[in-house]
Amino acid sequence: MSGKSKAVPLWGAGCMSGTSLDGVDVALLKTDGVTIFEFGGTVFRPYDPAEQEMFRAELGTWQASEALTELIETAHAEALAQLEGFDLIGFHGQTLNHAPDEGRTYQAGDGAILAEVTGAPVIWDFRTADVEMGGQGAPLAPFYHHALARYIGATEPVAFLNLGGVGNLTWIDPTVADPSAPGALLAFDTGPANAPVNDLMRARRGETHDADGALAAEGVPDMEIVAKGLEHPYFYKMPPKSLDRNDFHGVLEAVETLSDADAAATLTAFAAASVARAMEHCPTPPAALYVTGGGRHNTTLMRMIAAGVDCPVLPVEEVGLDGDMLEAQAFAYLAVRVLRGLPTSAPSTTGVRAAIGGGRVSRPNEPV
Ligand SMILES: Nc1ncnc2c1ncn2[C@@H]1O[C@H](COP(=O)(O)OP(=O)(O)OP(=O)(O)O)[C@@H](O)[C@H]1O
Ligand SMILES: CC(=O)N[C@H]1[C@@H]2OC[C@@H](O2)[C@@H](O)[C@@H]1O[C@H](C)C(=O)O
Description:
Blueprint: E1 10-17, E2 23-31, E3 36-46, H1 49-58, H2 66-80, E4 88-99, E5 104-108, H3 111-118, E6 122-124, H4 128-132, H5 142-151, E7 158-163, E8 166-172, E9 185-192, H6 195-205, H7 214-218, H8 223-229, H9 251-254, H10 260-279, E10 289-292, H11 299-308, E11 313-315, H12 326-339, H13 347-350, E12 360-362
Parallel strand pairs: 1-4, 4-6, 7-10, 10-11
Antiparallel strand pairs: 1-2, 2-3, 4-5, 6-12, 7-8, 8-9
Helix pairs in contact: 2-3, 6-10, 8-10, 10-11
The structure holds adenosine-5'-triphosphate and the ligand CC(=O)N[C@H]1[C@@H]2OC[C@@H](O2)[C@@H](O)[C@@H]1O[C@H](C)C(=O)O.
């Protein structure tokens, strides 16, 4: 396949409710599923503390309660109602459980109901087909990262790092036009990013996160705990590989006896060290590491990451992108690819047996 396609571009509304449980991001993107033509409006619909509690109570389950399913659908419908002019919706849902090695992953929320409520076709359940074909079902943003690398005019390998609840890294060779082709991409989850620090802040201070990394900046990381954390078998696995949000929950116990500031510094240093470890898997050194996701606002984390890698570490805003909305855009892009019958993952991004297009399509007025 060449880098250009003749299909008519569509406006997709991509929706992401991520592992940090902070809310729903929605972003419009005009694409033919290959090329990015235009970025459109965005909306963030936060989850309030009571809603976040509802999610936390069901993390790790394989069937969301009716109340939670309704919350997910309502929050998405509220966010989508603030935007207009889209042809279709890419609906990720909320990951409540992820066990790809057991062949299952679960994103709560029903796309068929969202199609009824919004009157637009909804592409959803992006991860199941990949997992059923032996893949990790994650990360899925890499095909979009490949399109972005071409969009920003990269001519040599670059990498994207998403710092959400969990971190994920994509190495891209933009000279390979087809993202499914061998050598175009290598992608995997790096380790815990914001989730452990968020959990610490919530437990110790009743706050959602360490704003700007201020508390971590006051502390001293315990590098013995960091080194011990890096002995986790996950870091010895070859990519592709992926994580559940709570896979590293145990690290919180390791910092139990430290002061709040030292504990925050240690968990932040652990997130940074897992990025440094991840960079060792890149097939060639990338020209730059472009950072997206909420963690790029954490200056202490960004400083620690920059100290541990050999290339410039830059927020994606440096190349004109929106790091708060990039994952939502990814699901708009992937939705159009699904409609066009194009693959959304490949052996080099999820470990799936062959390139595959995941996703179900629900149209309004179809029986639910
Ligand atoms: N100003 C800030 N200072 C420090 N951390 C921040 C700041 N803003 C956001 N964050 C962190 O970023 C998180 C949100 O990131 P993001 O929205 O990228 O995650 P997500 O999409 O839910 O997760 P994932 O990518 O794992 O699905 C917050 O929970 C917080 O930990
Ligand atoms: C199972 C699941 O929801 N995984 C998320 C999570 O959050 C970050 C990381 O872990 C990544 O693997 C993925 O999200 C992004 C959007 C992805 O699929 O690319």
